[in-house]
C-alpha cells in the first residue's frame, strides 16, 4: 500500500470498450497470461524476492499442472490513476487472458476523492474486457480510525463495480490477515504491509475466484 516514496505516474485515461470477450488459451499455443496490476501488497514490498503471493501463485499453478504464465506488473505506491495510465501498454504487450486488479488502498491513504478511484477502476475493468481478458477485482478496506462512513463508502466501490460491470470479486483481499486475532503477527513492523507468513493467506483469498477465470485448454 503506501510507500515512503510514492509513484508520481498520474496520466491520461484509456479509451474504453464495454463489451466482454470470452478469454481463451492463446491461439499460438502459448500459455495464457495472468496479469496482476497492483501496488506494494502485490509487489513484494519488504519481502524476499519470490515470497509474495503472486510468486506463490506461480508455484500453485505449476503444482496443479495448470498452464498459465503470471506477469506481475505491480508497483509499490501505485494508485488507481497510476494503474490506469499503465494498463493500456500492459494489455498490448502481454495480451492477458485474466487481469487481476489490486489497487485503491493508496488512493484512500492519500485522501484522494473516491469518485476518482471508482472511475479509474471502472476504466481498467472495461479496458481489460475490451482487450479480451476476464477481470478479478480485489476489494480493500481501511483501518477503523478512518471512520465507519468513509470505510463503508470505500468498500462499496468494489462491490458496486463488481455488480455493475459483472466481474469477479474478492470482497476483502486482506481477509484473515488484517481482521484476524493474530493480525499483529502477520504484518511487517510498519503495520501496513503483510509479512511472509501472510502471503499464503492472501493467495488462498484470491485462488477460488481466480481458478474459475482461467481459460480451458
UniProtKB/TrEMBL annotation:
Residue ranges annotated for the SGNH hydrolase-type esterase domain, each copy included: 36-197
Gene: tesA
UniProt keyword terms in alphabetical order: Hydrolase, Signal
UniProt lineage: Bacteria, Pseudomonadati, Pseudomonadota, Betaproteobacteria, Burkholderiales
Residues spanning the signal sequence: 1-25
Gene Ontology MF terms in the entry: carboxylesterase activity; phosphatidylcholine lysophospholipase activity
InterPro entries from the UniProt entry: Ester_Hydrolysis_Enzymes, SGNH_hydro, SGNH_hydro_sf
Record-listed E.C. numbers: 3.1.1.1
Name of the molecule in the record: Esterase TesA
Database matches in Pfam families: Lipase_GDSL_2 (PF13472)
Highest taxon of the lineage: Bacteria
Keyword hit for Signal: yes
Amino acid at each position: 500500500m503506501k510507500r515512503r516514496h510514492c509513484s508520481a505516474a498520474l496520466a491520461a485515461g484509456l479509451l474504453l470498450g464495454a463489451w466482454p470477450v470470452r478469454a481463451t488459451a492463446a491461439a499460438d499455443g502459448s500459455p495464457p497470461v495472468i496479469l496482476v496490476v497492483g501496488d506494494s501488497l502485490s509487489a513484494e514490498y519488504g519481502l524476499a524476492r519470490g515470497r509474495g503471493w503472486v510468486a506463490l501463485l506461480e508455484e500453485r499453478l505449476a503444482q496443479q499442472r495448470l498452464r498459465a504464465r503470471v506477469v506481475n506488473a505491480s508497483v509499490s505506491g501505485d494508485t488507481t490513476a497510476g494503474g490506469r495510465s499503465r494498463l493500456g501498454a500492459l494489455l498490448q504487450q502481454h495480451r492477458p487472458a485474466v487481469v487481476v486488479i489490486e489497487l485503491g488502498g493508496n488512493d484512500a491513504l492519500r485522501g484522494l476523492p473516491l469518485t476518482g478511484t471508482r472511475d479509474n477502476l471502472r476504466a481498467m475493468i472495461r479496458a481489460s474486457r475490451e482487450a479480451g481478458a476476464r477481470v478479478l477485482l480485489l476489494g480493500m478496506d481501511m483501518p477503523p480510525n478512518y471512520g465507519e462512513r468513509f470505510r463503508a463508502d470505500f468498500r462499496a466501490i468494489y462491490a458496486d463495480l463488481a455488480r455493475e460491470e459483472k466481474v469477479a470479486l474478492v470482497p476483502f483481499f486482506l481477509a484473515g490477515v488484517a481482521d484476524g486475532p493474530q493480525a499483529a503477527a502477520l504484518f511487517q513492523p510498519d503495520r501496513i504491509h503483510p509479512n511472509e507468513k501472510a502471503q499464503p493467506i492472501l493467495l488462498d483469498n484470491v485462488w477460488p475466484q481466480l481458478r474459475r477465470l482461467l481459460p480451458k485448454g
